[in-house]
Structure formats: structure tokens, C-alpha cells
Write a structure and sequence with these properties.
The chain is an alpha/beta fold. It is built from 21 helices and eight strands. It has two domains: 302 residues, no CATH class; 103 residues.
Length: 521
């Protein structure tokens, strides 16, 4: 592989994400809203605080609230860096760093494939598969962690191919820390880094135990070098190195409990009392969903048998053994420990770290198919390769185009990606007509999204009934409630269906299918 080829892959990757970015005038969903809003808070000098609450897991005192008590800060830091670099808080400036990260993924994937096969044709095919990443492409240009995870995953396995050096375990630790700073489940990559030291990194036969121990310490040192400032911040803010609310995710009995109030009802005891049948049923449900995600999102349907063949062909490569183990650890964590979060997108997010490996393996699997055709059918290997490898890339490009059209463009006048932002802007205009001032707190399904559209503080509609809603409204001084079609909790469906008949709520009107209420004193 030449530098020119790597540069070409980077430019193609940048062109792909820039094209999609042009169709995304807003973050599009709550995760990206949150990271973008967090970046704006930082660049505007408000530090790690937020004028919105999207859950009540840490029993927040009020607004403003310490930020990143659940999600990790790296994506917001990258958004803030882009805004600071361009001297603008615009959506384009905030995601500039994410576009650059996305552009790096194809050449790094090709480099990984080259390290596995030393074949230029396979490496180029792998890089082009990363240019057309199917289900992941709509999420690479926005302020989320998908691209960061792919970047760190590719670098992690490239480091394992470096010549033996004491710096390698330190680099693995730095990457594990960066992955954790991006997402809470990134802590798993510290375990993967330890396993890499034990199973993959070459070590001299002399004083082997001492070398292993020193490598493990270097890995931990690299991790702590990245994470210690965040641990200190959390300890000063929440009284513990990790924000307390996140641990409650282990004891959810339904996804909607993520928005429970008060969060004290989420305990091991209530989880256990839900019964072994309910606990098992939730994990079997998550198992099915995550297997579907493996087939469709990670394996892109047609790639997964080729990835399997490639993995089998390279089964003696310790790096690929570790990749399989890392995927299994992620799958188990997102199915058994966090079934609701995992099935609702957590596994899609965390699995992104291994996508460069799968793209590197797919052409290897295709090469095995061609070799079989040569033995059994008399195929000309060179000719078959020049046909099937481009066809594989074309299939990936077609699938990617279909997914981008469906997820981003839709088919109406405005891109479906921006529908929520447009609706919140319309709701904001309606509430201003009703006399809402700029400091009024609004209860909505996506508080950071509403804050971005309006500038008003916002809190989440809690999981519960009207009494719970009014209790939350009183505590956090909310003045308005927005109940949205498809996002209204089960306990509030009556309020949504019969808007004019609710005690404590004054029905104000309907905007884009959302029912809007004033909260009566």
C-alpha cells in the first residue's frame, strides 16, 4: 500500500461523510443532541454543566446540573474543539472533528487488512468497504461516538502488529482510556488490553513474569493517564470516580425505567423481585435483537458469511482471536448485564469498535470463496478476483445508499433526519406565542434537543403517571409539558389521548402531533 492509496481512501471517506452531513441540518436524535449541546456549554464557558435533564438516575438537585453523569465526555470535547477552532458554535463547526475522524477510518481499515494479508488488492477492498459502511454512515458525520470507536478499534489492532516494544502496552492503555472516555462500556477495552498483553504482545523468554507484570502496569498507566482527570472531576462532583447513576442501569426491569422518578425505586431488590422469568425473558429478548444487529448492522447481511470465513482462515492469528473475544465480551455485556440499553442501541454503538476488523476480514473470506471456486469449478483466480471484489464494494455502496436515503432523506419535503428539530422549533414558536419566557423549563422527550431548538431549559417527561409528572414539574419548576406521539410513557397515554380532561394540566394546543400543556400552580 502506498501513501497515495491511503490518501485516496481518506478523501473518499471524507467525501462520503460530507455528502451525508450536507443532508443533516441538525444532530437528529438525543445522543447526538446531548454531545453537541455539551460541546456548546464547554466552548461558551459554562464548563461541565447542562441546563437540561434527560434522566433522573443521580437524583439531580436542579438546573443547571453537572453534565455527563451518564454519557461520557469525549464526543462533547471533540465538538467543543471544532467550535473553538472555527470560532463558531455552528453545527458545522462542532462536527468538523467528527468528519475528520470518519475520513481516517478507511485508510486505517486498509492498513489493518494489509497487516493481516500483505495483499494490496484485499487491503484496498477493505478500505472501500469502510468508505461505504452501510448502517453506520448516517451516524458518522454527527456528534456521536461511532467514528471515535471505529478509530480506536482500528488503532488498537494495528498496535498489536507493531514490533515488540515497551511502548506498545502503554499505547494500548491510552486507547483503552480513550475508549472509556468516549463511552461507559469502553471500560471493557481495559480488560481487552490486559488480554492483549497476556495473549498477543510478544515477550522475551527471559524474565517473562517480570516483563508481563511490567507490561500490565504500563497498560494500566496509559489508561489512568487518560481517565484520571475525569475520575477526579467525578469525585469532586458526585463523590465517586464514576457517576453513581450509571450503575442503576444494571437493575432496570424495562427500558422506560431509565426515565423513572424517583430513581431510588431502581434497586437490586426490585429487579430481583420482578422474578426470574421476567429477568430471563428480558435477556432472551435482548439476545434476539442483538443477534439481528450482528447480522444486519455489523455484518451488513451479505458480508457476514465472508467475515466468518475470513475469521476462520486467520483463526491462528492471535489478534483475530482477541477480536473475536472482544466482540463476545461486548455482546455478553450488552445482552446480559445491560439488555435494555444494549438492545435499544448500546450494542450498535459499542460494536462499532470492531467494524474495521470485520471489513478487513470480509475480502479474506471472499478470497477463500474464490479459491474454492478455482478448485471445484475451475475459476481463473485472477479474473474472479477482478470481478468479485469490485462487486462486493458495489453491493456495499448500494446498501449504504438505500440506508442513507431511508434514514436521512426519507422522501418528503424536509429530510426525516431533521423532523424532530423542526417540530421542536415549531413548538418553541407556539409556546412563545403563549407567553413563554426564555427561562421557562419545559418537559419534553428529548431535553437537549429542545434546548438546542429553543434555548430554554428542559427536563425529561418521567416514566410514570400524571402524579409523577406533576411531582417532577414542581421539584424542577417546569411550566410546560410536551407529550409527543410515540414518545409518551404508558402512564401518560390517557393524558395524551384526552388532552382537555387532566387535573393540574391546562391544555394549550397541538403542534405537529404533540400535545402541549401548561402546568397549573
Amino acid at each position: 500500500m502506498t501513501r497515495r492509496q491511503y490518501l485516496l481512501l481518506a478523501l473518499l471517506g471524507l467525501a462520503a461523510v460530507t455528502f451525508v452531513a450536507a443532508l443533516q441540518p441538525s444532530p437528529g436524535y438525543m445522543d447526538a443532541d446531548y454531545y453537541y449541546a455539551g460541546g456548546l456549554q464547554l466552548v461558551n464557558g459554562h464548563g461541565f454543566t447542562e441546563p437540561y435533564l434527560w434522566n433522573y438516575l443521580d437524583d439531580p438537585v436542579g438546573l443547571p446540573h453537572p453534565s455527563h453523569a451518564y454519557w461520557m465526555p469525549l464526543a462533547s470535547l471533540l465538538a467543543a474543539a471544532g467550535a473553538a477552532l472555527f470560532g463558531s458554535v455552528s453545527w458545522f463547526a462542532a462536527r468538523a472533528g467528527f468528519l475528520l475522524v470518519a475520513a481516517l477510518i478507511p485508510p486505517l481499515t486498509a492498513a489493518l487488512a494489509w497487516s493481516l494479508t500483505s495483499r494490496r488488492d484485499l487491503a484496498l477492498t477493505s478500505g472501500l468497504l469502510a468508505v461505504f459502511p452501510a448502517f453506520y454512515l448516517p451516524f458518522l458525520p454527527v456528534t456521536d461516538t461511532f467514528g471515535l470507536y471505529m478509530l480506536f478499534g482500528a488503532l488498537f489492532f494495528l498496535i498489536l502488529n507493531r514490533k515488540s516494544s515497551a511502548i506498545n502496552p502503554l499505547l494500548l492503555g491510552l486507547l483503552a482510556g480513550s475508549t472509556h472516555l468516549a463511552r461507559a462500556d469502553g471500560l471493557l477495552w481495559l480488560l481487552v488490553a490486559f488480554l492483549a498483553v497476556l495473549l498477543v504482545l510478544p515477550k522475551p523468554p527471559q524474565r517473562r513474569i517480570i516483563v508481563i507484570f511490567s507490561f500490565l502496569l504500563l497498560t494500566l498507566a496509559g489508561y489512568l493517564l487518560v481517565m484520571t482527570p475525569w475520575f477526579i472531576r467525578n469525585y469532586a462532583t458526585f463523590g465517586s470516580p464514576l457517576a453513581a447513576g450509571g450503575s442503576k442501569m444494571l437493575w432496570l426491569t424495562s427500558y422506560d425505567q431509565l426515565f423513572s422518578y424517583p430513581s431510588s425505586q431502581i434497586t437490586f431488590s426490585t429487579w430481583w423481585q420482578s422474578g426470574i422469568n421476567a429477568i430471563s425473558k428480558a435477556r432472551l429478548w435482548a439476545l434476539g435483537i442483538n443477534l439481528e444487529r450482528t447480522l444486519a448492522e455489523q455484518g451488513e447481511i451479505f458480508l457476514i458469511p465472508l467475515v466468518g470465513l475470513g475469521l476462520w482462515h486467520l483463526r491462528k492469528d492471535r489478534r483475530m482471536q482477541l477480536a473475536g473475544l472482544a466482540w463476545l465480551l461486548t455482546f455478553v455485556a450488552m445482552t446480559v448485564a445491560f439488555p435494555f440499553a444494549g438492545a435499544r442501541g448500546g450494542f450498535f454503538h459499542s460494536g462499532a469498535a470492531l467494524q474495521p476488523v470485520w471489513w478487513a476480514l470480509a475480502p479474506v473470506g471472499l478470497d477463500r470463496v474464490i479459491a474454492w471456486g478455482s478448485r471445484k469449478r475451475g475459476w481463473n483466480v485472477a479474473q474472479a478476483g477482478t470481478v468479485f471484489r469490485p462487486a462486493l464494494v458495489v453491493l456495499a455502496a448500494l446498501l449504504t445508499a438505500v440506508i442513507v436515503y431511508g434514514r436521512v432523506m426519507g422522501g418528503g419535503g424536509n429530510p426525516v433526519w431533521s423532523q424532530e428539530n423542526i417540530a421542536y422549533s415549531n413548538i418553541n414558536g407556539f409556546l412563545k406565542d403563549q407567553g413563554m419566557d426564555e427561562q421557562a423549563v419545559v418537559m419534553v422527550a428529548d431535553p437537549p434537543g429542545f434546548y438546542l431548538a429553543s434555548g430554554n431549559p428542559a427536563i425529561a417527561v418521567p416514566d410514570g403517571d400524571e402524579n409523577t409528572l406533576l411531582e417532577v414539574a414542581r421539584r424542577y419548576q417546569a411550566e410546560y409539558v410536551v407529550l409527543e406521539e410515540g414518545s409518551t410513557p404508558g402512564g401518560l397515554l390517557t393524558a395524551y389521548k384526552y388532552p382537555a380532561e387532566q387535573a393540574g394540566l391546562q391544555y394549550l394546543g397541538d403542534v405537529d402531533g404533540a400535545h402541549i400543556y401548561g402546568i397549573q400552580p
